[in-house]
Amino acid sequence: MGKRIISFLLAVLMASTLLPMQVWAAELADSSKAAEDEIVLEEEAVIPPEESELEEQKPQEKLPEEQLEDGKPVDQSAGELTESNIATTSATTVASGYCGGEGNGRNLTWTLDSDGLLTISGKGAMANYDSESKPAPWCDNDQVNFQRVVIKTGVTSIGESAFYWCTNLTDVTIPDSVTTVGDYAFYSCSGLTNITIPNSVISIGSYTFSDCSSLTAITIPGSVTAIGSGTFYGCTNLISITIPNSVTSIGNRAFKDCTSLTSITIPSGVTSVSGDLFYGCTALQTVSLPDSLTVFGGCTFMNCPSLTSVRLPASARTGSWQMFKNCTKLTTVTIPRAVSVVGANAFNGCTALKTVNFGGNQADWKAMTINSGNTPLTTATVKYTSVTALSAPTLTGSEDRYGCPDLKWGAITGAAK
């Protein structure tokens, strides 16, 4: 009996010991399951971020070094796309800087992009450059690889030698805010085929378009009053040019060696032209000169072998030195009575000259000073368009000794014998 009691007590003791362990294991299992459920709930609760949050998380794009100045971005507004400068959106700025001619020079900026577009913008005048001592910045460092130039409204001038020898340039846009185009501005831009000069331009400088050998036609607006020396010198493909009546001055060599030019009209406001004006214009056939023109420079039409006839204006005073030298097809020339002097060699080499229409009479012709080297002129047939009015003959009469009338007529001045 005692043994049974002891066995029962031992069993109770063991049962009491195992019960807490089972409870603890159950609680641990429940705790693990709850943790797993919580993790699942958290995963289901994850919400994708908004696009604005993603934008905020994206790293900022680094500007190319060319667009930085002193660590700050350069204003790129000059490169905004317009109808005239639409390129591809992938074009990037390859060079930029300042080109102003006022104050510290920062009134104008320029940008050159990877598509070959040069854009100039700002307000005021452009700086003047020199092809040797101070070339334009976009022509420096062998960067003469742009094909188009867009000058934005606000720019008031195109500087001297601005695009000197930019042989790849084919197209230029000039706004109506520009008033002057400087000397040598587009000198030897041999690829330039077309350019429009706006009505705001007053003056075109010397040699501005000289040696633009691909330029075929140009119209000078009615706002221009002066064309500088050599402006179109060597434009070998220039076929036609329109000069408005507003022009009063044309410099020497302005159209020299324009070998494709066939005809031209000088406006009525021009009173004098300088030397070599049409020298070497080998295709020139006709030229119209206004009666306002009084003075011609030397060699005006020298080496124009296609010229067949010329009428000098009524107000002309002289035939200049070598004026028509080597005009081998010149057959007829009209010289006004006002001309009193013909310069040396003015008609030298004019082997086809046959007729001279002279505005005076024979006495006026004989009174003219014709210098040496003008044999074609002196041997041509002179037609006088003016004759001296003949005076009425005088008659005196008497009777001879036989009573017959004796009549005597006075000599008539200028009458042929």
User: What's the number of helices?
Assistant: 4
What separation lies between the terminal Cα atoms? 197 Å
Helix content percent band:
10-25%
* Binned strand content: 15-25%
Topology:
Elements: H1 2-44, H2 51-57, E1 68-69, E2 72-73, E3 93-98, E4 108-113, E5 117-122, E6 148-151, E7 157-158, E8 171-173, E9 180-181, E10 194-195, E11 203-204, E12 217-219, E13 226-227, E14 240-242, E15 249-250, E16 263-265, E17 272-273, E18 286-288, E19 295-296, E20 309-311, E21 318-319, E22 332-335, E23 341-342, E24 355-358, H3 362-367, E25 369-370, H4 375-379, E26 381-384, E27 395-399, E28 405-409
Parallel strand pairs: 5-6, 6-8, 7-9, 8-10, 9-11, 11-13, 12-14, 13-15, 16-18, 17-19, 20-22, 21-23, 22-24, 23-25, 24-26
Antiparallel strand pairs: 1-2, 3-4, 4-5, 27-28
Features:
417 residues; alpha/beta; six-stranded mixed β-sheet; five-stranded parallel β-sheet; 15% helix; elongated
Protein model, in words:
By secondary structure, the chain is of the alpha/beta class. Helix content is 15%, strand content 21%. It is built from 4 helices and 28 strands. Strands 3-4-5-6-8-10 form a 6-stranded mixed sheet, with no helix packed on it. Strands 7-9-11-13-15 form a 5-stranded parallel sheet, with no helix packed on it. It has a 4-stranded parallel sheet with strand order 20-22-24-26. β1 and β2 form a beta hairpin. The radius of gyration is 46 Å and the shape is elongated.
Compact description:
With 417 residues, the chain is an alpha/beta fold. It has four helices and 28 strands.
